Amino acid sequence: MPGAPPQISLSMLLSAARNHWFAASVVMFLTLALAVLAMIFLPRKYHSEAMIFVKLGRETVSLDPTASTGNRVSVLESRDNEINSIRDMLYSRGIMEKVADRIGPEVILGDAPLTDENFESNFVPGTDYKNSPRQKAILELSENTDVINSRKSSVLTLITKASSPELAQRILKEYVDVYLAMHNDAHQTPQSNQFFQEQSKLLKIQWQESMKALQIAKEDAGVVTIEGAKENLKVQTHETETLLMSVLSRLASNQAKLEKYEAIIGKNPLDQQRIHGAYLSTKTELSATLAEKEAIETQLERMLAKAAKLNRAEVSIGGLEQEVQMAATNFAQYQELHEQTRIEEALHNDRFTNVRIVQEPSFVPKPISPKKMLIGMAGIVAGTSGAVLIAVFLELFMTPNRPEDQDDLSGPEPDYPDNDEFTATETEMELAREVVDATNG
């Protein structure tokens, strides 16, 4: 029926292949030629691979000395967090910038040859712009660098791509070196050693001044220690009081004897000569006992005054002793932290970290792109598809008087008038076919 869309069948495809094999062959050849040219002239890409192992180290299990100077809280950080943090740092722009500055933007972009010497960067912050070679080199590094981490693994695989195997290996070497330095710096608090050293000196001076003030206070009080002085004074006071009780007892005994002798002498003067010696002896002993009693009482008063003075000094000396103890504790703590930061700084300077390179950047001379097999298969598929399509197109739209368009008519088509306004109806077409059949009969 006129106006119906063409039907694609197997016979039509075979006819298209038979009638238009030359055009299909040309398309096939040109497509395969383009694939071959792509395999020959597309720029080569080479890769280098390195592996780093993140082990448990001082960065994981130790506390920064500056974090131990105040109140502490427990913070539990998983290994996944640490691995993810390292992965984020490996993707940072700062690493790309330093690698670009070390190797040179022109070398990375392929505009200059690779040399063994590091590039002397003359980059000045604030002078960079969007389309500068440095920015292009940083973008090139970002697009051709990848970090792969398997799940529940402490190993990170680093991959870089470049226009030559030497350049890929050099980029990855600089990349790993820059990251190790960045990782080392990230776990080091700047100037912490100097801070704790200065604080230790100040605390030592405070401790020495407190010790000197305590010594002066003890010298003024006449004691070595408050506890020792109080104990010693307590013993002396007890002994003095005991001695005073003994003297008072002897004094009472002598007074009783003296009164007895005086009573005897008053009643019987004849006995005065007989007891005169004992009387005088007792009187002398009584006078000595009275003098001893006064001396002991004076000594006891001094002890009580000393006890009062000691009680007054105990407050000031106790406060000074607390200051000395606190200053000594702070000095010892900061001295220990100073030693820790000194060790940390020594480890930092020697680049001791918990990240270890388990595989050095590799040198792989075989390019990873273009992939010749993939391009060849794509060329074959594209060439075959293009050949079929061009043959079908030519068969459908460019081949005149196809058999199926003649509706099995054995005779020629009627010669219609060449009139633009003439339009054949279905009845007229049927009549024309009958005339043709009659003529052939």
Task: Walk me through this protein's architecture.
Strands 2-3-1-4 form a 4-stranded antiparallel sheet. The chain is α+β, with helices and mostly antiparallel strands and 441 residues long. It folds into 4 domains: 81 residues, no CATH class; 149 residues, EIF_2_alpha (Alpha-Beta Plaits, 2-Layer Sandwich), CATH 3.30.70; 156 residues, Helix Hairpins, CATH 1.10.287; 29 residues. The radius of gyration is 57 Å and the shape is rod-shaped. About 4% of the residues have low confidence. The chain contains 13 helices and 4 strands. α1 packs across α12.
Would you spell out the secondary-structure blueprint of this structure?
Blueprint: H1 10-19, H2 21-41, E1 46-54, H3 58-61, H4 79-90, H5 93-103, H6 105-108, H7 133-143, E2 145-149, E3 155-162, H8 165-186, H9 192-221, H10 226-267, H11 272-349, E4 355-359, H12 372-397, H13 426-440
Antiparallel strand pairs: 1-3, 1-4, 2-3
Helix pairs in contact: 1-12, 2-12, 5-7, 5-8, 9-11, 10-11
